[in-house]
Design goal:
By secondary structure, the chain is an alpha/beta fold. It is built from 18 helices and 19 strands. Helices cover about 40% and strands about 20% of the residues. A seven-stranded parallel sheet has the order 3-4-2-5-6-1-7. It has a seven-stranded parallel sheet with strand order 10-11-9-12-13-8-14, with helices on both faces. It binds adenosine-5'-diphosphate and magnesium ion.
């Protein structure tokens, strides 16, 4: 195994997971952060969007989890539900072979289900603030054994709205719990929290100019519009740029809804995301977008923080964001990891002052697009339609591939401790089944009346097609897919 993560002397299961994720070389921020967290020191990290911050905390946390201890040892808080799921996925992928169990907890999900999840064996929880405080208050989560507490998108989480919640959690943490703050935009608003709750935190600030000293990863431009032609200009930009996938940000829910409506009428393959939608719809939208079921996402700032979607080559600000930090996060949905991207902002006369603030904040002047070439736009319109079709097809292919490689199925078994079933009995029974090997069996949990098993490597659906029940210790035990969380 030729993997540069080896130097951190990680568990071999974690190294294998990193290998299968194709994480072979640590990113700059990972190089800095991993040793510090392994050394159990508090940390404040500022590093660009898409630079791999999630794994920089996920790897050392997974490394330090004691797998035989069933209490929650890592808690990560994030601002949105979509991000909670994404971070949970990343941690689960890194911890899967070590059999680390990570769950996401957020609002608008039945609290009863969450309580029953939290009673099971859970090592790491990724949560939005409101709901986790609810569980701490009800004592349905035990955080006494917490080893790591991470605030992702820390500047947002320590801003108005969320700050009190953060303090509530910080006040409850066990003394020896390591604390980490992560964001692409960190400034002084966190200093109070740091001095109050952190012990000699290490500062990691990855200076982007140094990293990309020859080329910027995101090309930023703006174009002047007025309210009458804003939508027409948007269309022209799309055709002119002919992106694979594009995210368009508007400032308010209504603006997102209107724009989505208009684009739908114009036959674009477009989806929308905003806070008024039901949770299910929000999650399906992100999933469908990731699976190339449509190629234009119109969103409020709910998608501006943290969300990673491959192949977004263009971000358009339909309106200039009024928060300068949000500009950085919005455009950071493109140009991620080692890719390049483009961001174009539509600016009306009234919005110029916000653009000036952004330029001052980012310490750079955006280039203006003075005019769009009509011929290119015309050709682009045809090209874009062809691309749409191609994308839908590649989406279908990619999804097929992904499913065969990575599918994990959680199986419910209707017997547990009461019937004297132990983990080892389940492993024994499953490995006797044709086509299932030891490495296909993931996390197993045995509860009083039932048990759960993760079947990896796409073995779950085949198994369920063939079996309604299996024989464990001469007892017939019913099996079915577990659909919760
Ligand atoms: P950030 O939180 O800094 O915005 P993410 O943690 O979301 O960035 O990571 C961006 C992308 O980079 C993700 O798709 C992730 O899978 C990928 N990535 C992270 N670390 C590595 C690595 N060492 N090698 C390859 N890809 C990586
Ligand atoms: Mg992130």
């Amino acid at each position: 195994m030729n993997n540069n993560f080896k130097k951190y002397k990680l568990d071999k299961e974690i190294l294998s997971s990193l290998n299968s994720l194709n994480y072979n070389i640590p990113t700059r921020v990972q190089n800095e952060v991993i040793p510090i967290l392994l050394n159990k020191e508090d940390i404040i990290v500022k590093s660009k969007t898409g630079s791999g911050k999630t794994a920089s905390f996920a790897i050392p946390i997974c490394e330090k989890i004691n797998i035989n201890d069933n209490t929650v040892q890592g808690l990560i808080v994030v601002p949105t539900r979509e991000l909670a799921l994404q971070v949970k996925e990343e941690i689960s992928s890194i911890g899967r072979l070590k059999k680390i169990r990570c769950i996401a907890i957020f609002g608008k999900q039945p609290i009863k289900d969450q309580i029953s999840q939290l009673k099971q064996r859970v090592h790491i929880v990724v949560a939005t603030p409101g709901r986790i405080i609810d569980h701490i208050g009800r004592k349905t989560i035990n955080i006494e054994g917490l080893k790591f507490f991470i605030i992702d998108e820390a500047d947002k989480m320590l801003n108005k709205g969320f700050a009190e919640d953060m303090e509530t959690i910080l006040n409850r943490l066990p003394r020896e719990c390591v604390k980490g703050l992560f964001s692409a935009t960190i400034d002084d608003n966190i200093s109070e929290v740091c001095s109050k709750y952190m012990t000699n935190p290490k500062y990691v600030d990855i200076n982007q100019d140094e990293v990309n000293n020859f080329k910027k990863q995101i090309i930023e431009k703006y174009i002047k519009v007025n309210e009458d032609n804003r939508y027409e200009v948007l269309k022209k930009i799309i055709y002119n740029e002919c992106p694979n996938s594009v995210v368009i940000f508007a400032n308010k829910k209504d603006a997102v809804r209107d724009l989505h409506e208009k684009m739908k009428k114009d036959k674009f393959l477009v989806g929308q995301l905003h806070g008024d939608m039901s949770q299910d719809k929000r999650l399906f939208t992100i999933k469908d977008f990731k699976e190339y079921k449509f190629n234009i996402l119109v969103s409020t700032d709910v998608a501006s923080r943290g969300i990673h979607i491959d192949d977004i080559s263009l971000v358009i600000n339909y309106q200039v964001p009024k928060d300068k930090e949000n500009y950085i996060h919005r455009i950071g949905r493109t140009g991620r990891y080692n890719k390049f991207g483009k961001a174009i902002t539509l600016v009306s006369e009234n919005e110029e002052k916000y653009l000036n603030e952004i330029e001052e904040y980012t310490n750079s002047k955006l280039d203006e697009i003075k005019e769009l070439d009509d011929q290119k736009v015309k050709r682009g319109k045809i090209e874009f339609k062809v691309k749409e079709k191609e994308l839908l097809n590649t989406g279908k292919e990619k999804n097929k591939d992904k499913k065969t490689n990575l599918e994990v199925t959680r199986i419910y078994l209707n017997a547990g401790k009461k019937k004297k079933i132990r983990v080892i009995d389940i492993v024994g029974a499953l490995s006797n089944i044709e086509g299932i090997n030891n490495e296909d069996i993931g996390v197993i949990e045995v509860q009083e009346l039932c048990s759960y098993v993760d079947l990896l490597n796409n073995k779950g659906s085949k198994f369920l097609k063939k079996h309604r029940e299996i024989n464990i210790k001469k007892k017939l035990v019913k099996v079915r897919k577990d659909n919760k969380l």
